[in-house]
Design a protein that fits this description.
It comes from Pseudochryseolinea flava. Keywords: Signal. InterPro entries: DUF3857, Papain-like_cys_pep_sf, Transglutaminase-like. This is DUF3857 domain-containing protein. By secondary structure, this protein is α+β, with helices and mostly antiparallel strands. The protein has 3 domains: about 30-240, Immunoglobulin-like (Sandwich), CATH 2.60.40.3140; about 250-420, Roll (C8orf32 fold), CATH 3.10.620.30; about 425-635, Jelly Rolls. The protein is built from 11 helices and 39 strands. It has an 8-stranded mixed sheet, with no helix packed on it. Strands 28-29-27-26-33-37-36-35 form an 8-stranded mixed sheet, with helices on one face. Strands 23-22-21-24-25 form a 5-stranded antiparallel sheet. A hairpin with a 2-residue loop joins strand 1 and strand 2. Helix 6 (about 320-325) packs across helix 7. The chain is globular. The relative contact order is 0.08.
Length: about 650
Amino acid sequence: MRIQQFFLAAIVISSFCASAAEDPKYPLNQIAEVLLKDADVVYRKDQSTFTIYAKNRATEHVHKVVTILNSNGKHHAYEIVGYDKLSKVTSFKGYVYDATGKLINKLKTSDIYDQSAFDGFSLYSDNRFKRADLSQGVYPYTVEFEYELDYKFLFFIPNFYVAAAEKTSVQYANYTLIFPDELRPRYKTFNVNDAPTESTTKEGMKSLAWTFKNISSIRYEPYSDPSDIIPRIMAAPTQFDFDGYAGSMESWNSFGKWIHSLNKERDVLPEATIAKVKELTANAKTKEEKIQILYEFMQNRTRYVSIQLGIGGFQPFEASVVDKMGYGDCKALSNYMVAMLKQVGINANYTLISAGEFPRTMQVDFPSSQFNHAIVAVPNGADTIWLECTSQTNPFGYQGKFTGDRKALMITNEGAAVVNTLRYSVDQNVQSRHAVVEVDAVGNAKAHVKTIYQGLQYENNRLSHVLHEQHDKQKDWLEENIEIPTFNLNAFTISNRKAKIPAAEVNIDLTLNRYASVSGKRLFLVPNLMNRWTHIPEKLESRQTDIVWHHSFIDVDTVEFKVPEGIYPENLPSAVKLKTRFGEYESKYEMSAGRLVYTRKLTMYKGKYPASSYQEFADFLKGVSKADNLKVPFLTKT
């Protein structure tokens, strides 16, 4: 009897488990229609919990469930979890469900790839990552990832973003910070309306939690900054310990003292090198000349490699190691440069910065680890000379789009100071072009074009890198970037003018078959040879975000057209003048000594403009495009 009862109970339990296993999870029909509209993916759940246990111990638990609606969202089916010697992935699970919520695959240990995070230029790195792919061939489907990391340090707390991409809806998201009261983290929110819910856990820890529900997908508006609308939470510790180095982020000054302590006594150079730098600068007449000599000396004898080993992610190699090996990362090379300058009596400052053409704005009121790069600042009277030490080709004192025009943290003996890097004026960022074009009676043409790229325009389409390439690579670059529909590149020269405001000169000879179109006795040509504005801002019913224009510049074009005798312009377009807060434009046409001379000047001003001015902005660029594409008709006398 008891055996029968046992088997009966087993059958009941088995049936229940089978039933439970078949219960659908995250079926598509549980998503509100409004969240599906204009979405590629819907985050059913996006949870992140960061728990602080001590100044050198924390954990991060992530649980995300994403319904992928079409192939545009396929990348959400991949998950990558990074770690190193100071962090460990303690669990990693994954599941995939079909549209009805039926489980169709479960991540196995053999499906998780563990590999070095080698990036091609890291010489020393203990960074690794685990990755998994749950992508499916039939849409829609839902992936679920859950993992946890254990950190043996407390230096940064991951930011949390809600719907951090276009066409992403969110059903539910939660960000929670758990901590002992004496290690309460600081936080700053962006585009978040509600304050966090504060509570106490059963273990007596404090908790701050933010919850978000039913956020519809968005599409980024043209010429906008997504950070203006994406909900984001920054968090950071005040007291921390990184690989045995204790510090404080209570202020930028205290953070600077910690960085300074990492660099302390790592600026010692070999006696032979000290003698060499003094010899090199012995005849220099000015401080700036000394700096340039040593900067170019460093460029010629070192190269950049990435170093990512524990505290090595923040502490530079000793200057003597860089001197011996001839390589280093941004920290080591900057420290090396500071050490050399010190030997000739020049004070220089190691400086932390967020590098990249479109960096995230430094939050000056929130001391924390916001940097990914190191450079050198050399006070020079009322000015500062900025040195990018990872480039073997960068012109002396030039910052450009990589580190220019932003705030940085300059490390001093006393701590740190927030400083502004170099901003180039609109008059310094000039592209100046002069072309002579000979057009024959059937519309074919030959052209010689000289273009000078100055200031930030020195970097146009990677030109500053192409300057140092071989002839064939330069030719490839020209053929890709000459903005004429059909041409043959017959010859070219490229020269580099290294200076604080650098310039590159490009001369090209072109054959332009059928550049002008012929109809009966008329020949039509577009005077704007190769600098036509083509991008017209799309029409928006209601602009929501501010307009962002990242760089100021001036383009000046002068094009002379020689035409055969007996051909003359039927009429010339009127001059065009446009003046707005965003920029200015002028073009005009003149006949001089039997030549048509076309001149054009476009000026654009860096700035952030209110959403309400979008139509004015669009109208301005439409006007520029219309003027740029005007055709001039010529008639033959016969």
